[in-house]
Automatic annotation (TrEMBL):
Residues 434-526 form the SnoaL-like domain. This is Nuclear transport factor 2 family protein. Keywords: Signal. Residues 1-20 form the signal peptide. SUPFAM superfamilies: NTF2-like (SSF54427), Tricorn protease N-terminal domain (SSF69304). Pfam families: SnoaL_2.
Length: 532
C-alpha cells in the first residue's frame, strides 16, 4: 500500500482534485432560437477553499464538492431555500458527486486517508457508502444508465476511457488519453468525452457504450477540456471569464455568449445544465482584487481566432467602403465587406447577410437615390470595432446616424445601423450624472440615474444584468474594493436618446477601455450595451 500511495499521489495532483479557491455559481439560462442569455448569477458556495464539480440533483437541488474543516465532502445546495447541507460524514474526501439514475442515492469519487481512490455510492436514507467499481482508480465519470458508468481511469500516468457495467462488474477500455469532461448527449444513446492526442487540438468525441464506436464531434477551444450540452446540437464551454457556445452544423467556431467577469469569475471550468435547460452551473477560479473589476469588461462577438487589429488597421478597413459609396462604385464598395457580412439594425434586428445580398440591396439603393453621400463626423475605434457618426445625404434629405462596424483583416464582418430617435430631454445630462457618481463611488446617487428595470448587455444583446437590484449588488462590490476607481470620456456621440461613449477606466492602477451605448427613457438610463 505504501508503494501504491506514492505512485497515486502525484497523479492526483495532475489528473484529479487539485485544491484551489474555486466557487460554484448558479445562473438563469434562456435560449431563443440561436440566442442564449445568462442572468441573475449567484455564488452558491461562497466558501473559502475548494468548491467544484457541480451537478443538478433534480430541479431544486445542486450537488458539489466542498471543503469544510480541511476536508472535501458532498454539499447539497437547496435552490428554493438558498441553503446548504452536507450529505456525508466519511473520513475520506469526496469529489464529483452525481445523482444515481432512478435511485435515492448519490455517487462520488472518494480519496481515503490511506491513499485509496475509488468510486462509491451513498445511500441518502442512511448515509451508508458502497464501493461501485473494484480495482479501477476512477478520476472522472458520468452515469450512462442506472447500471453502467463511463469513466476516466488513472493508468500509467494517463487517463483512459472505460465503460463499466456495475451489475456484472465487467469493464471495457474504449479509448486512451482522455480528459475529465463526460456527458450524456441529449436525445441520443451516446456519451461525449474529450480526446487528447499528443501535439494536436483536443477533440470532443462521442462514444456509443454498447459497441465502443467513437466519432469526432468538434474541437475544443485551445487548452479547454470542460464542456456541457445545452441540447442535442449546442455545446457550452468557458475560457477565462467568458462563456462560449458552439452549435453543430451552424457555427464554424466557438462564439461568445457572455462575459461573466463582473461576477468575479477569472476562469470558467466545470459546467452543468439542468434537464429543462433553464439553469446553468459553473465552477470557476475567482479573480484577485486586481483583476476584472471594471464594469465595462464585456466581450464582443469576435470568434476565438480573430486577431485584434490596431486602431489604425481597423479604421482603414472601414474607410475602404466610404469613397466607393460616394462615387457609386458598386463592385469596389461591396468588396470592402466580407463574403458573409451580416447587416443589422441596432442591436440585432437582422436585415440581410452575404456580400451578394449587400450588393443587390445597394444596387437598388443607388437606383432609388440619384444623389447619395456619406460624411464621417466622428469615429471611435476599440479592438476590431469601429463606430462612425455619419451624415448621410440622400437626394435632398440629410440624416444623421451611427454605424457599428465589426471588422477583420479581410473586410467588414458586420454592419449595424443605429438610427436617430427624437427625444424631449438632453440625454447627456443623466449620463454625466452617472459618471460623476461612479467616480465618487456613491452607490445611492449612481443607482438614481437608472430605471428600475435597467438592463446591461454585451453587444449585440447578450444580457449580463437585469434590474436595479442586480446592478446595485455588482457595483457596490466594485465601489468598495477599488479605491482608485475613475472613468473619463475619451470620445462621445450623441444620437437622439442614445449616448455612445468611449471610456477610459482606471482600476487598481491599471487602465481599461470600453465603449458604452446608453439609452435614455424619461430622463433615466434604461439600457446600456457594452463593447470591449
Amino acid at each position: 500500500m505504501k508503494y501504491y500511495f506514492l505512485i497515486l499521489f502525484p497523479l492526483l495532483s495532475t489528473f484529479s482534485f487539485s485544491q484551489s479557491n474555486t466557487e460554484v455559481f448558479l445562473f438563469d439560462l434562456e435560449k431563443s432560437n440561436s440566442k442564449i442569455e445568462v442572468s441573475n448569477g449567484i455564488n452558491i458556495s461562497n466558501n473559502e477553499g475548494y468548491d467544484n464539480q457541480p451537478s443538478f440533483f433534480g430541479d431544486e437541488n445542486v450537488l458539489y464538492a466542498s471543503t469544510r474543516s480541511g476536508q472535501t465532502d458532498i454539499a447539497q445546495y437547496h435552490i428554493n431555500y438558498k441553503s446548504k447541507t452536507f450529505i456525508n460524514f466519511t473520513k475520506g474526501g469526496e469529489y464529483s458527486p452525481l445523482k444515481i439514475p432512478n435511485k435515492n442515492a448519490v455517487s462520488a469519487v472518494r480519496l481515503d486517508i490511506d491513499g485509496k481512490q475509488r468510486l462509491y455510492s451513498y445511500n441518502l436514507s442512511n448515509g451508508e457508502s458502497t464501493e461501485l467499481i473494484k480495482d479501477l482508480v476512477v478520476a472522472y465519470y458520468t452515469w450512462y444508465d442506472e447500471h453502467s458508468i463511463v469513466s476516466a481511469v488513472i493508468e500509467n500516468e494517463q487517463l483512459n476511457l472505460y465503460f463499466t457495467n456495475i451489475t456484472d462488474g465487467i469493464s471495457r477500455k474504449y479509448a486512451t488519453n482522455v480528459g475529465r469532461s463526460f456527458h450524456k448527449i441529449p436525445n441520443s444513446n451516446l456519451v461525449s468525452f474529450i480526446y487528447k492526442e499528443a501535439n494536436k487540438p483536443w477533440q470532443i468525441r462521442s462514444l456509443n457504450p454498447k459497441n465502443g464506436v467513437t466519432r469526432l464531434i468538434a474541437n475544443t477551444m485551445e487548452g479547454v477540456e470542460d464542456i456541457c450540452w445545452l441540447d442535442g446540437k449546442t455545446l457550452l464551454s468557458g475560457k477565462n471569464g467568458i462563456l462560449y457556445k458552439l452549435t453543430l452544423k451552424q457555427d464554424n467556431n466557438w462564439k461568445k455568449v457572455a462575459n461573466l467577469s463582473s461576477y468575479g469569475i477569472a476562469d470558467i471550468t466545470r459546467l452543468a445544465i439542468n434537464d429543462n435547460g433553464t439553469k446553468l452551473l459553473i465552477a470557476a477560479d475567482l479573480q484577485s482584487n486586481a483583476q476584472g473589476l471594471e464594469v465595462n469588461d464585456n466581450p464582443t462577438e469576435q470568434t476565438v481566432d480573430d486577431p485584434i487589429l490596431s486602431e489604425t488597421e481597423a479604421a482603414a478597413v472601414v474607410q475602404k467602403h466610404i469613397d466607393p459609396f460616394n462615387n457609386r462604385q458598386l463592385n469596389d464598395f461591396a468588396n470592402a465587406f466580407d463574403a458573409n457580412v451580416v447587416v443589422n439594425k441596432f442591436p440585432k434586428d437582422y436585415m440581410y447577410s452575404g456580400r451578394n445580398a449587400l450588393k443587390e440591396n445597394y444596387r437598388q439603393f443607388f437606383k432609388n437615390n440619384k444623389k447619395s453621400n456619406v460624411k464621417v463626423l466622428n469615429r471611435m475605434v476599440l479592438n476590431n470595432y469601429v463606430i462612425d457618426e455619419e451624415l448621410v445625404t440622400l437626394n435632398n434629405l440629410t440624416i444623421r446616424q451611427a454605424t457599428i462596424y465589426n471588422v477583420d483583416k479581410d473586410g467588414i464582418k458586420s454592419m449595424t445601423f443605429i438610427r436617430n430617435k427624437n427625444t424631449t430631454s438632453n440625454p447627456e445630462t443623466i449620463v454625466n450624472n452617472q459618471l460623476e457618481a461612479y467616480n465618487k463611488r456613491d452607490i445611492d446617487e449612481f443607482s438614481k440615474t437608472y430605471t428600475k428595470d435597467i438592463k446591461l448587455y454585451e453587444f449585440p444583446e447578450n444580457i449580463t444584468s437585469n434590474g436595479i437590484d442586480e446592478l446595485e449588488k455588482r457595483y457596490q462590490v466594485i465601489f468598495q474594493k477599488v479605491p482608485d476607481l475613475n472613468a473619463e470620456i475619451m470620445n462621445r456621440i450623441v444620437l437622439g436618446n442614445k449616448v455612445i461613449d468611449k471610456e477610459k477606466a482606471t482600476i487598481n492602477g491599471k487602465t481599461y477601455y470600453a465603449i458604452a451605448i446608453y439609452e435614455i427613457d424619461d430622463g433615466l438610463i434604461s439600457k446600456v450595451t457594452f463593447i470591449q
